[in-house]
Specification:
Elements: H1 7-12, H2 17-27, E1 37-43, E2 46-52, E3 61-66, E4 69-74, E5 97-102, E6 107-115, E7 118-125
Antiparallel strand pairs: 1-2, 2-7, 3-4, 4-5, 6-7
Length: 158
């Protein structure tokens, strides 16, 4: 297996630690495959993440977003009367898990729901008006408008 050392990159970039961390974590193979999930592209700016969480209830699951990282975790709480169960075969995994998804800028989690053992998390990309491209009208000939002084006055140069 080939590894890449990103140490020189960390020395030469300032303020892009998150980008370097993402590149570093992308090279690591994620060994956990539980719980299985799907990511759907529903609309131009809408996504849907479905996680198969059989055996988990709403009180056992946590969905949170912090610094563009969506974290879904589950932990089965001990319920009364389950300690004395004897299994012949145990195929439903009730182990704790934590699954992380790195979100792009301006992607927000709108809601989450649990139905028939599937946890559904809906994501929407909402680009703010300030970040959207602006169309500038092109005038024929030189500009006719004169620059207007907003603040200050005439001052002498030093």
């Amino acid at each position: 297996m080939r590894t890449v050392d990103f140490t020189p990159l960390y020395r030469s970039i300032v303020g892009f630690d998150r980008l370097a961390d993402m590149m570093d974590s992308a090279t690591k193979i994620e060994s956990q495959g539980y719980p299985p999930y799907n990511i759907q592209h529903v609309d131009e700016d809408e996504y849907l993440i479905e996680l198969a969480v059989a055996g988990f209830g709403e009180e056992d699951l946590t969905v949170e977003v912090q610094e563009n990282v969506l974290t879904v975790s589950g932990r089965i709480s001990e319920k009364e009367g389950q300690d004395d169960r004897r299994f012949v075969h145990r195929g439903i995994a009730e182990r704790a898990f934590e699954r992380r998804f790195h979100l792009a800028d301006h992607v927000e989690v709108t809601d989450a729901g649990l139905k028939n053992g599937l946890l559904t998390v809906r994501l929407v990309r909402e680009i703010p008006e300030a970040a959207k491209p602006k169309r500038i009208a092109i005038q024929s000939g030189p500009g006719k408008t004169k620059a207007k002084l907003i603040e200050g006055g005439k001052t002498k140069a030093a």
